[in-house]
Amino acid sequence: MCGIAGLIHRGKSSKVGHELQGMLQALKHRGEDSTGYALYGDTDGKNFIMRFKVGENVGEGSTSISEDVSVYDERKKIVDNYLLELGAKIIKQDRILPYSLRYEIEYDKKDLLEFSQKIEGIPGVEILSMGKSLEVIKDLGNAKMVCDRYNLDKVVGTHAIGHARMATESGVDIKSAHPFWGYPFSDVSVVHNGQLTNYWNNRRALENKGMRFMSECDSELIAVYLAEKMRDGASLEEGMKESLSGLDGVFTYFVATKDSLGMAKDTMAAKPLVLYESDDLVAMGSEEIAIRSILPQEIDTYDPFDGEVKVWQI
Amino acid sequence: MANLKSTEKKTKAQAMGMHTEVLTGRTQQKFFNPDEAENFYYFGTYDVDFNKRTNLDVKDMTAAEANKEIDNLMSQGFGTIVIKNPQGKHSLGVGILNKLNLIFEGSLGYFGMGSCDGPTVRINGRVGWSCAENLMAGKVVIEKNAGSCFGAAIRGGDLICKGSVGARTGIDMKGGTIIIGGDAGAFTGFMMQRGRIIILGDVGINLGDSMYDGTIFIGGQIGSYGSDAVDSELTKSDQDWLKRKLKVAEIGENFDVSKMKKIVAGKKLWNYDNLEPTEKKGAI
């Protein structure tokens, strides 16, 4: 079933990590196989932040194969060497968990395709996000567990989207968890609730055009689909509007960039979404209780209609 | 478990759980005789006094706890109950089979007021998906917006939303009236079988798709018609009924009903009088 939530503060920053945790935890009955956060934190905008994994969480419920930590260490070493070769300088590095790392990188080139292809050429390594504001954090368990594990409570930023997943189309692992990074575009992320029925046709067509898929999760298609449209010069909103006819199935999805947050709902309106909109805050989720976790007072909310696309700026 | 070897034939069956079921409740057909009104008992109901009023704060309650407490208050004779802090909880107020004046000071989540028969409800907020699903009688008024599947499969009563509603409003409805003050989404009246839907604003695509029967009145623009939904003439009696209904609903009292569109089933999708293909062969 899955639940999605998102919020954007306009003209100010807030503890988006804490707020999104509350919203996703309120939706945990919609799925707690895995939970993911895409947080747009306050940064100086100079360096890239790369979140990546060198292995999978093989804890309870995982469908991944267990590997020794020494394998992770070896992969990390190769990543460090490749970064040197690419001319990227590691400013700061945190190994949050044996398989999950966060690097702050000084890297001058704007095109991340070559960079990402080289790093992800290492078997078992996946870049979860790359951006000057975006950080994608995803792992197995419900929102509170993931938030506590990665200490996300204190993250301050302008906007965020997240996902509580009930695995239906693919395995219980981090690679299938949302949000998906809009590879190879800096600071683009996507979460999705629904099922896409033309996944394989679209995937084959996009792979022929040089786009990359990391999982077999149908939701990843949205991120890749939008990335391909943007690569060809479309704006985010134009890409989202095209997706209403290009993607088949039932869906409600959110997409975020460095300075904006958008939503799209399929033409059947088969997946739920409740929206609250004011001058300084937009909050939305699969159910109203998600919004109530940050706005307990009486507020006006509504369901966007079928085929609706909306984009807000910070 | 009972020892089956040592029991009589009759009690063996009973020990196995057979022949012990006593049919009770509303599933049995009851015929009401006005002469025996005093003896008439409606299962699961209480005598309540509408002037006996109380508040119930459900902030720290689960939906099940809140619903049990509403039942408990009705059993004590409270006829007017004000629910405080519903905060978008799901399944509040479901299964009330009583005359009751129920007021929610806030918004409800999914399945609010589902399967009710008799209460008069005012929700001073918004409702999520499937509000008042399966309503049999009574009146439910929502002051703000509503989610999708609003009034799904209702059989009777009045369901009123003063704001806008999502997709599939009145899906599979079998009676009653749904009145919307604002706009409605796609597939409004999808597969409806009886009853009436009134939308004062615009409506999305596939209006009345695959409807069997019933009537839909639209005040604004129509996105598109669904399969077998067709226009029909708005009669004088339709207009009188609409005026009366909107007045009672406290909504759109001054609305010009003469410009509304009336949509009914074309009844081309089904025809129960047609012979089955095998029967046709025989006839030939």
How are the secondary structure elements laid out?
The complex is a heterodimer of chains A (314) and B (284).
Chain A: E1 3-9, H1 16-26, E2 34-41, E3 48-53, H2 69-86, E4 89-97, E5 100-106, H3 113-120, E6 126-131, E7 134-140, H4 143-150, E8 157-165, E9 180-181, E10 189-196, H5 199-208, H6 220-231, H7 236-246, E11 249-256, E12 260-265, E13 274-277, E14 281-285, H8 288-292, E15 309-313
Helix pairs in contact in A: 5-6, 6-7
Chain B: H1 9-15, E1 49-57, H2 63-75, E2 78-84, E3 101-105, E4 117-123, E5 137-142, E6 158-161, E7 174-180, E8 194-199, E9 215-218, E10 229-232, H3 236-248, E11 261-265, H4 277-283
Parallel strand pairs in B: 1-2, 2-3, 3-4, 4-5, 5-6, 6-7, 7-8, 8-9
Antiparallel strand pairs in B: 9-11, 10-11
Write down the secondary-structure element order of chain A: EHEEHEEHEEHEEEHHHEEEEHE
Mean pLDDT of chain B: 87
Q: How far apart lie the N and C ends of chain B?
A: 63 Å
Helix amount of chain A: 25-40%
Radius of gyration of chain A: 18 Å
Q: How many beta-strand runs of chain B?
A: 11
Assign the structural class of chain B, choosing from mainly alpha, mainly beta, alpha/beta, alpha+beta, or little secondary structure: alpha/beta
Q: Give me the strand/helix succession of chain B.
A: HEHEEEEEEEEEHEH
The name CATH uses for the topology of chain A is Glutamine Phosphoribosylpyrophosphate, subunit 1, domain 1
Largest interchain contact: A-B, 20 and 31 residues
Outline type of chain A:
globular
Please indicate the percent range of residues of chain A in DSSP E strands (runs of 2 or more): 25-35%
Q: How many distinct domains of chain A?
A: 1
How many helix segments of chain A? 8
Q: Which runs of chain B of at least 5 residues are low in confidence (pLDDT < 50)?
A: 22-28
Beta-strand residue fraction of chain B:
15-25%
Which secondary-structure class do the elements of chain A indicate? alpha+beta
Strand order of the largest sheet of chain B: 1-2-3-4-5-6-7-8-9-11-10
Helical amount of chain B: 10-25%
- Count the E strands of chain A: 15
